[in-house]
Design the sequence.
């Protein structure tokens, strides 16, 4: 296996951890198929390293890293391991098929973590650093070592561990701000301190991994790059533990837009940012806030008259980067019921979708159906429609029909579904239309699953907008997210519930042991 090559001194390696740290967000669990889809999009974006999971933590994580390792061609795949030999062996096994595979091993170095979490003294931690890194090097030359809670570690001890990790063979040294406590000048100074005090630091790339507890993850990452870090660990939409990780789209676009102040480059194809953001949001059910930088629905919207007037005169008046640079469609072409296959295919290409023939035919048929019900089919509708088809491709429980009576009288739903090809029908009343429809599902398909989240999001404006629904279910400690999109909110709701049940069925069959987390 070969390690990541850095072509020049100003190139910043982008290490995406949406599938590992991102998935550690409560409720953001993803199944294998979804992780593979996200990994494919990340690779198309030209992300350098994809951290695909923590293989020892569960069979699901192992499989995700292993399958992604088989599929990736250009991005390196990485798996996380504690400073424990069994963890490292499991990562080595998972990444074995990859042309480029990385083992990422970590241990805490702060006094607080060593004393209370690890219950080890600094010398014992030091020994584990040397042992874990040298052991990992037996499997690959691409080994990353992280000092968890690095930003709250004693500087002398930190430098001693980093020097030893590099001597043991680590090629990337990652310094996390695990609890999002650092502020930019302090974090930049920490990186500068490491560069000036660790004698063999030139033999490794310095990486940073910032959490967003104080909303400073991106600012801290950029301060670290200015101080000499050349890898940033980040996630799409800033997904991650607690307040999340540094958002990849913000780091990448800040570097690109302000190259005058920050003359560093990444290899990321920024035109794929929106696609990745929408996919991660749809899969996890974590809606992107409208005013979120780069990927929020309002990030490129100009509402006030003064701004609109300025924009018409010169886009640069209020726009510091173009919408196209992050993958928002250039053309204002809106499809409708008269649009043909050619226009539809063109639109998919513009939106960076590359569907095979069958998926394309299926998406086109559903587009025609949608266009019959909705006059203007916007880009957002197409994205929702294509994602909806991909989400449902392998479902064993399918919606056949739904009829609902509601209003000022008691709501009543009649639902027909199919389970492995066998039809099932039910009718029930409920406290509102959603309740009555969900009650029918519960009669037709028995589970111990409890509804944890029911969320509706309008894909576009207008009363004929498609509703995108997320349903989160939990059964015996296993959490799944189901998605559904339709112009009828109730149909979208039932689709989302059934999609979640389909995922639970898969999880039950696998009987994955409960997960550890980093
Ligand atoms: O936040 C953190 O310290 C981590 C490490 C495992 C890198 O996620
Ligand atoms: Zn983290």
Sequence:
């Amino acid at each position: 296996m070969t390690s990541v090559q850095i072509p020049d001194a100003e190139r910043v390696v982008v290490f995406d951890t949406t599938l590992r740290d991102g998935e550690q967000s409560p409720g953001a669990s993803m199944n294998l198929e979804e992780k593979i889809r996200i990994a494919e999009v990340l690779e198309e974006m030209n992300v350098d390293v994809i951290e695909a999971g923590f293989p020892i933590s569960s069979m699901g994580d192992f499989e995700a890293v292993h399958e992604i390792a088989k599929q990736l061609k250009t991005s390196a795949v990485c798996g996380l391991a504690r400073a424990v030999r069994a963890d490292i062996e499991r990562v080595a096994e998972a990444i074995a098929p990859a042309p480029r595979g990385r083992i990422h091993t970590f241990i805490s170095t702060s006094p607080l973590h060593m004393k209370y979490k690890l219950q080890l003294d600094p010398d014992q931690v030091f020994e584990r650093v040397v042992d874990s890194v040298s052991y990992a090097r037996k499997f690959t030359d691409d080994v990353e070592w992280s000092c968890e809670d690095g930003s709250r570690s004693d500087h002398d001890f930190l430098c001693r561990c980093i020097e030893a990790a590099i001597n043991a063979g680590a090629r990337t040294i990652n310094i996390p701000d695990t609890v999002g406590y650092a502020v930019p000048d302090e974090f930049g100074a920490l990186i500068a301190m490491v560069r000036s005090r660790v004698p063999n630091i030139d033999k490794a790339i310095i990486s940073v991994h910032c959490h967003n507890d104080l909303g400073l993850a991106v600012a801290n990452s950029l301060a670290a790059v200015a101080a000499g870090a050349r890898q940033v660990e980040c996630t799409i939409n800033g997904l991650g533990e607690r307040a999340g990780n540094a958002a990849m789209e913000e780091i990448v676009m800040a570097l690109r837009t302000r190259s005058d102040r920050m003359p560093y480059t990444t290899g990321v194809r920024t035109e794929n940012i929106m696609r990745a953001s929408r996919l991660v949001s749809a899969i996890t059910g974590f809606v992107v806030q409208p005013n979120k930088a780069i990927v929020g629905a309002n990030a490129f919207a100009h509402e006030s008259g003064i701004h609109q007037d300025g924009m018409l005169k010169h886009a640069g008046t209020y726009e510091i980067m173009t919408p196209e640079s992050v993958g928002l469609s250039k053309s204002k072409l809106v499809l409708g019921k008269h649009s043909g296959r050619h226009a539809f295919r063109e639109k998919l290409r513009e939106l960076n979708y590359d569907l095979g023939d069958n998926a394309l035919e299926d998406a086109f048929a559903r587009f025609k159906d949608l266009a019959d019900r909705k006059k203007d089919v916007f880009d957002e509708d197409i994205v929702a429609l294509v994602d909806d088809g991909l989400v449902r491709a392998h479902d064993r429980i399918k919606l056949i029909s739904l009829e609902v009576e509601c209003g000022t009288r008691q709501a009543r739903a009649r639902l027909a579904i199919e389970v492995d090809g066998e039809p099932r029908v039910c009718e029930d009343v409920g406290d509102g239309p959603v309740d009555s429809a969900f009650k029918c599902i519960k009669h037709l398909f028995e589970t111990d699953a409890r509804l944890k989240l029911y969320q509706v999001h309008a894909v576009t404006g207008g009363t004929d907008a498609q509703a995108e629904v997320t349903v989160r279910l939990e059964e015996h400690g296993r959490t799944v997210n189901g998605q559904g999109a339709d112009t009828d909110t109730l149909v979208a709701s039932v689709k989302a519930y059934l999609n979640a049940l389909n995922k639970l069925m898969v999880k039950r069959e696998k009987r994955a042991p409960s997960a550890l987390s980093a």
Residues 489-510 form the longest helix (22 residues). The chain has a mean pLDDT of 92.
